[in-house]
Amino acid sequence: MLKIGSLKLKSNLILAPLAGISDLPFRMLNRSFGAELGFVEMINCRSMGFKSKRTLQMLKTHPEDRPLGVQLLGCEEEYILKALGVLKKYEFDLLDFNAACPAKKVARRGEGASLLRDPKLLHKLLKLVVKHSKKSLPITVKIRSGWDKNSVNAREVALLAEDAGVDGLFIHGRTKMQGYSGDVDYKAIAEVKKALEIPVIASGNIFTAELIKKMFDETGCDGVAVARGALGNPWIFSGEKPQKSETVRVMLKHMNDCIAFYGEKVGVMKFRKFFCWYTAGMRKVRQLREKSSRAKTQAQMLEIIEGV
């Protein structure tokens, strides 16, 4: 069991938020394979404060989509407070604050991983989030090992986060400058785990059952967050290795769920990128992938999937 504040989880594998990916159909599909806790897409506090239609669309859910986490991105107190005010109208189970996103446009605004260069500001913002959130709502923060190889400060940042009152900490074992490439720093994660009393959930290079085991073994972490490893691979949560027929079945379900949620035109467009992920490693699918990138209707995509 993994306990984060008042939230008790039977599984210690978590479906991490992925920008442009973690919609309701994606979450529900992965839940069916054992992903107990899932997240909506990362939400920018400014967008939330202005109640943008696209941002509110991200929060669409239904009763079976639980437990559910929301992750906020921001660095300005005014907009963080506005976002927290809007979120009070929604039902969810965990609130995460992002201090890990390495995207250049995010870092330029002083958000995401940029906050690792100002631990005192991050500490202040986390205290604000803890103070102005629902009392029973678990609060977590996501960080990286540091800004670059010369400023690996995850332990310092993690201790400040714990002092701010968060209930758990997510850590990606790479620096901001590494992005999503290069080696994962298991040692940095292990040092954070040893330093904290709150649960530590680790991520980075989580693509197989073997890599999940390696993360647990080398860091002693309490849980593992799966992000890119779940793209076209919900079986990562069940430990199964699917036959092609099973992959086709899941693709069909995912496509139909996307269409039911968005409508045919948008649903097919949303699913096209998933077709490439589901067919990764398969032989003789290059032409099908090229066709999928141009598919516009359910019938066209169905024909392509059945041709796998």
> Which secondary-structure class do the elements indicate?
alpha/beta
Give the CATH level 1 class of the largest domain: Alpha Beta
What fraction, in percent, of the residue positions are helical? 40-55%
* Mean pLDDT across every amino acid position: 96
CATH-assigned homologous superfamily of the largest domain: Aldolase class I
Q: Which strands sit side by side, in order, in the main sheet? A: 3-4-6-7-8-9-10-11
Number of structural domains: 2
What name is given to the CATH topology of the largest domain?
Answer: TIM Barrel
Number of helices: 13
Distance between the termini: 39 Å
Please summarize the sheet with the most strands.
Answer: 8 strands, parallel, barrel
Query: What is the N-to-C succession of helices and strands?
Result: EEEHEEHHEHEHHEHEHEHEHHHH
Strand content: 15-25%
Q: Which CATH architecture of the largest domain?
A: Alpha-Beta Barrel
The count of strands amounts to 11
Morphology: globular
Residue windows where pLDDT falls under 50 for at least 5 positions: none
Nearest-angstrom radius of gyration? 19 Å
